[in-house]
Amino acid sequence: MLARQNQSKALQWLGKQLFNREDPAAFFDPLLERVNPMWVQQYTPARVVQTLQETSDTKTFVLKPARRWQGFEAGQHVNICVDIDGTRRNRTFSLSSSPILWQSQGLITLTIKRLPGGLVTNWLHDHLEVGAVLGLGEAFGDFLIPEVATPVLFIAGGSGITPVLSQLETMAAQDYRAPVSLLYYVRTSEDVIAGEKLEALAARYPALTLSIIPTHDGASPRYLSDGDLGTVPGLNGRQIFLCGPKGLMDLAEELLQSRGVRERDIHCTYFSAPRANLEHQALGGQVQFSHSNIEVGSEGDANLLEIAEAAGLTPQYGCRMGICHQCSCRKTSGTVINRLTGQASGPGEENVQLCISVPQGPVSIDV
Amino acid sequence: MKTMTEAQLSELERDLNVIRDAVVADLGERDAQYIRRIVRLHRTLEVGGRVMMPFGFIPPVFVAATAALGISKIIENMEIGHNVMHGQYDWMNDPGLHSQTYEWDTVCTGESWRRTHNYEHHTYTNIIGKDRDYGYALLRLSDDDKWKPQHTLQFINYILLSVFFQWGVGLHELESERIRRGEIRLRDKLPFLKDFFRKGGRQAFKDYLFFPLITFPVAPVVLAGNLGANLIRNLWSSTVIFCGHFTQDAETFTEAECEGESKGHWYLRQLTGSSNFTGGKWVHLLSGHLSYQIEHHVFPDLPAHRYPEISEQVQAVCRKHGIPYNTGSFARQYGTVLKRIFAFSLPDRLRARVPALTMGQAT
Ligand code: FES
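Output (structure tokens, whole complex):
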């Protein structure tokens, strides 16, 4: 193992000498891409082998990543990149298939809903066809099934079901021996994603209790209620996983807390950057972009990515919500607040994600 | 410099912004495909050159290999490196083509070049005393520098600078002339020197050690070919760059003139301080479209392959405002560069006696 690492270190060193770049293999990408797009080194290529229409606005893409992809655990997400009109776009999606499918057939699936006005999701739906190749990053995220079987409750809304699909499938395959409940909220019964798959799972995996609840089928909306939680036996002994729109997640957290569920038993995964409550802290300050000799003042109402762009700079970015790390840059001095956690950084040199960092006092960034 | 009122200058600014906005709004697939195609061309030439080089003991192969490697370096430095590092393709969000991270195949580090070229040269274009690219603090190219006896030999300096151009550019940030004058200390430049030696060492290692050594029995051939390729690139890029600002009619400016200047004034300075040369498609590609130096200086961050498309519009703006648009054949423009280098090597009184050596703007 060590030998291999040394060897690759040496190769990297040589690559840097010969090609002036950190990823020497990618020097050949422009040529390899022509011969076979699956040989590209800069990212892991994945070929679309099938697309399935789940609902009127949701599709599942079955992908075959190059074999060097490292795999994933149920509940994790990946960054994908696609070139749309000449611009590379990175987005993060949950993997909806189980890791077993990857291990046995080398396939993964992404289940993607069109977002109104969404550039990438709409493009994927309209242009990503069988045979196309997109770029894949390594999987990440800690929205994971408990290692020791304990009772679990999933609360999912809309396309928030995608990581849960992967988890349920995995649990069924592992014969996870503890009660598992799913409360799945959808707008109307038309909007159920992977309905058949869920029914089939419930049929062959008796530990699973499935409730699919349309919120807008009746005359008046019917949201998650305390009564719904009441139907889940032994709620307070369960690990609870939340995934869905912000409104549902907030409501669920509130109801769970009033039922005395402990904070550490609740696991969330986000699909939009929540704004941690930053009001009590004094935010804003001079921001210095040291590479470009630009200094601008900020009021604390914008993140570093927005500040940089307003100053005419073009740092790299992907998701703009703290997931993909494309925007990571070196902070050389000053403190920033992480908008996701509300935590302050240290004062010294460290990497920060521009898109979720708000300056607290003067800050210098290597951009 | 042509004098224009502030009102005229802001009209000039608006006219040029219209051209810029139209291109920016239209950026997309076509530009991405263009630069990707050029990158492929570069990789093909470099790989081809490197593979052929060991067979260079056959003379025609030697010529082909050296030419392929030389041209690959020219394309990488001019059309890819220079333009990418200007941020022309940042909107593509491709880490391989990003201005802040690109590192090119020449001695000068990307970082140092972004400071001295992107920032200094493009901000203070042709302001004597502020634009250190003007004569590279080595050549006297205008009356603003007082004549000294050592200038008599500046033609030799010019030739040396061209031959070793990549090392000259690499050392540009050292500001050796200011160290000599005691304005700064060598010690202040140590971090720069460290980077310079690291990058320069890498470049030398690759072309003069690694590739010759792995082809051991024919090492001298490979070494000679690599030297040749670097020489071709050095001569060509220095020539292109000299043609961009040191032609007969390219103007220079004083610091006083440019104090607190408006954007319109900056535009005017870019238009009159730069010069183009004409040529075929290949000439433009190999010069990184710096054959459209005027367009480049006005819009340094628009993809360079767009310059030919907007040149006519820029010329129309120049005509409208009565601003000269300095262009001519490559041979003509280069001829006037040589003339300038020679003319200013002479003391002013001597030069005045030879009518052929008067420079358009000499005051
Ligand atoms: S842009 Fe994705 S983490 Fe910042």
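The first strand of chain A starts at residue 44 and ends at 55.
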